[in-house]
From TrEMBL:
Keywords, ordered alphabetically: Acyltransferase, Transferase
Source species: Loigolactobacillus zhaoyuanensis
CDD domains in the record: init_cond_enzymes
Keyword presence, Acyltransferase: yes
Occurrences of domain Hydroxymethylglutaryl-coenzyme A synthase C-terminal (ranges): 253-352
Protein name, entry field: Hydroxymethylglutaryl-CoA synthase
Keyword flag Nucleus: no
EC numbers: 2.3.3.10
Domain named Hydroxymethylglutaryl-coenzyme A synthase N-terminal: residues: 3-164
Gene Ontology MF terms in the entry: hydroxymethylglutaryl-CoA synthase activity
InterPro entries: HMG_CoA_synt_C_dom (IPR013746), HMG_CoA_synth_N (IPR013528), HMG_CoA_synthase_prok (IPR011554), Thiolase-like (IPR016039)
Family of the protein in this entry: Belongs to the thiolase-like superfamily. HMG-CoA synthase family.
A UniProt-annotated Pfam family: HMG_CoA_synt_N
Amino acid sequence: MKIGIDQISFHTTQYFVDMAELAQARHEDPNKYLIGIGQKKMAVIPPTQDSVTLAANAAAKILTPENRQQIDTIIFASESGIDQSKSGAVYLQSLLDLPRQVRAFEVKQACYSATAALQLARGYIALHPDKKVLITASDIARYGIGNAGEPTQGGGAVAMIISKDPRILAIEEDSTVLTENIMDFWRPNYATEAKVDGHYSGHMYVDFFNEVFDAYRAQSGMTLTNFDALAFHLPYTKMGLKALRSILPQTDELTQQRLSANFEDSRQYNQIVGNLYTGSLYLSLLSLLENTKTLTAGDRIGLFSYGSGAVSEFYSGILQADFKQALIPTQHQKMFAARQQVTIPTYEKIFNQQLPVDGSTVELDLSQDPAQYVLAGITADQRQYRKQY
């Protein structure tokens, strides 16, 4: 039985910063951001959006009357959770008006957790082939104003529906994983911005990729020639490019050219959004599928998932017949085209507009947020969500 990604969608906010302007404001050479980390734009997240609303806005794009009745599990993958006890998935069930007869929970392991959710969903569908699983990978990457991590911020959410007989990508059986307790990135409960050792994390990312890919080759008997494309976790797109370049010498020139060209398609969306944490790999996959002019049904895509701290996995999937028809590129292109560029002072003001941490009541101005699902404020320690249309 084939099991995999039947539908996939993405949402980010209406604001972005131009990376060249950010570099100039920080007295850096723009090419440090444009080429050095491979980014063009960075999503700016207003206080009226959080990990729950981003996930709801992404999921709403792929929900139909038919699949609503088949979804009996909601998995909320995030490292930007809003509550230490209650899962974001429970809020989604209510906001999206999904049936009450569902299980709903949250998973966390830095940027890896959406892959954990996908593998859990695969096992569940194998036992319950008449059901579907909704996964959201939703995050807001925050490092602070003016520090080294600032240009690798961003935010948004990817939503996926996992089912049997998937229309987009059937996940193959082979998979290799690796876990090691390292301190390359973390965020203590008391911190609103992440702690990161950027150079160390970059090196560990490439090392983990090589180790799990070598293990995958040994397990499956495949080589790079068996892959038509590779999709990477892309907190910034140069990181994935470094990993790809580390293995290209293993294969022939034609395969190198194919993988390199498909990597460029796979990073187009990430370059104009920034870091999605849990959603970064799956935004890269979505970018590849919606921008490719060469991939066809039957092609194999390798996927590398990495979550600092650190857990990684390499697995693969086969593109299905008419996969393009199951995608919604027009919706995503309209969303990107409608975004507004903000000045650096405006971005900094938005960044510093944090919700109170003492339970104070606050009412947010929704007039500038065009999203379907928004955060309206806080009352009696409870976040107030609203559907605007």
